[in-house]
Amino acid sequence: MSVIEVSDLRKVYGGRAVVDGVSFSVEEGEIFGILGPNGAGKTTTVECIEGLRIPDAGSVKVAGLDPNTDHDRVTQLLGAQLQESELQAKLTVQEALELYSSFYERPADWRPLALRLGLTEKLGTRFGKLSGGQKQRLFIALALVGGPRVVVLDELTTGLDPRARRDTWQLIEEVRASGVTVLLVTHFMEEAQRLCDRIAVIDQGRIAALDTPAGLISRSASSTVISFTPSRPLDLRELAELPAAASVSADDRDGRVSINGTDETVNAVITLLARHHITAHQLRVSDATLDDAFLDLTGATT
Ligand SMILES: Nc1ncnc2c1ncn2[C@@H]1O[C@H](COP(=O)(O)OP(=O)(O)OP(=O)(O)O)[C@@H](O)[C@H]1O
């Protein structure tokens, strides 16, 4: 059953459509990712879902409700971690958790949440004295404290150190296991690949692709990466002309060659090396990553 339905969503600023006909639906219990280059329209899209912006055209439904006309009911079932939030500097962590709990009819117990997010020792600390990563963890707790059916996390782990990031991923998996639907906007490909069941790639206000992480990788023009160090220098132009070779590069420092292509390219590389009597040291053939697929789909850098 879909819990979020976005149909032909459009939002225009200054005569420019920054969201231009976006449609997708998110199933109950799914972790759904939104990826896209800076300015692609991701935050605008999720803020329409949260009822913070009014669409110029199209429709958004959360559990069958319109986030604008049914704002109060949607607020009860949707938790949101906003991208650049601020709280009163003097509010302590505990006061913030208690305050947000009081907004909801059936809040979650904030204490285990605080423990899970490593905030227990900071309960008495004022917001203004928290580090960037601690503020981020508090915002994740505040998004979950209402016991939401749907949680929207915009740049979930930006600013977190690697340990806190991995802990947060585990927490999100637990949140999903408890039946909560997660909508995740992220720039971290590893995060999207690890957590998301499906991903919508948004580029210039439109959906460029919507698939599982594995589906996005396999549909990319360069789903296989071949790398090796040749026993003697090799003409890269010859490699670039091989069947289905999408890109070829060589590391200036150690001469290691990398080719993005398909299984067909792997066979052609091996044949070419044999023909030139070149040995491939440390030959590796691996699947492309979501990073490669993202670059293919958007032509952008993250
Ligand atoms: N209130 C606004 N008024 C005018 N333009 C806006 C407004 N909000 C967003 N935009 C523009 O809309 C476009 C999409 O912005 P949005 O914040 O949705 O992108 P994003 O994909 O979330 O980007 P990022 O990854 O950088 O956070 C950008 O070009 C932005 O400048």
From TrEMBL:
The lineage of its organism: Bacteria, Bacillati, Actinomycetota, Actinomycetes, Kitasatosporales. One of its GO terms (molecular function) is ATP binding. GO terms for biological process: response to antibiotic. Belongs to the ABC transporter superfamily. Drug exporter-1 (DrugE1) (TC 3.A.1.105) family. InterPro entries: AAA+_ATPase (IPR003593), ABC_transporter-like_ATP-bd (IPR003439), ABC_transporter-like_CS (IPR017871), ABC_transporter_ATP-binding (IPR050763), P-loop_NTPase (IPR027417). Keywords: Antibiotic resistance, ATP-binding, Cell membrane, Membrane, Nucleotide-binding, Translocase, Transport. Its main location: membrane. It is a peripheral membrane protein. The keyword Lipoprotein does not apply. One of its GO terms (cellular component) is plasma membrane. It is found in: Cell membrane. Residues 4-229 form the ABC transporter domain. It is an enzyme of class 7 (translocase). This is ABC-type xenobiotic transporter. It holds the Pfam family ABC_tran. Its EC number is 7.6.2.2. Coiled coil: none annotated. It comes from Streptomyces piniterrae.
